[in-house]
Design a protein that fits this description.
- With 112 residues, the chain is mostly helical.
- Helix content is 58%, strand content 0%.
- It has a single domain (4-111), classed as Hypothetical protein af1432 (Orthogonal Bundle).
- The chain has helices at residues 4-12, 18-29, 50-65, 76-85, 93-101, 103-111.
- α3 (50-65) packs across α4.
């Protein structure tokens, strides 16, 4: 499972298109954690490219707030509070601050 970051990177990074190379950066880094407990490289803090830090938050929100065959969806307000509690642990605090600036928009989108 953890190899998907490396496989995605290897596929996308071969492209000459800059947008796909940015996708490679995201694929590689979206499971890194602010405290260094993520993978594949165990990067921490500002070593994590901002693109990966942003997608890490978005991916986590979507995973928690979406219904899956193996779990029910969770209320978006509850999800956002959990994400906030992990600021500076799993997630870049600057990304979380910006997320909470647009909190109402996120709640509205998930409430539809």
């Amino acid at each position: 499972m953890k190899r998907h970051t490396l496989i995605g990177y290897e596929i996308l990074n071969k492209s000459s298109a800059s947008i796909l190379r940015k996708g490679a950066e995201i694929a590689l880094n979206h499971h890194e954690r602010w405290n260094g407990s993520g993978y594949p490289k165990g990067l921490s803090g500002n070593e994590i490219p901002i693109s990966g830090a942003i997608i890490a938050v978005a991916d986590s929100i979507d995973a928690m707030a979406s219904k899956k065959p193996y779990k029910p969806e969770r209320p978006i307000v509850e999800v956002l509070e959990e994400i906030k509690s992990l600021s500076g642990i799993f997630y870049n605090p600057d990304v979380i601050n910006v997320l909470f600036e647009i909190k109402e928009e996120v709640i509205e989108k998930y409430s539809k």
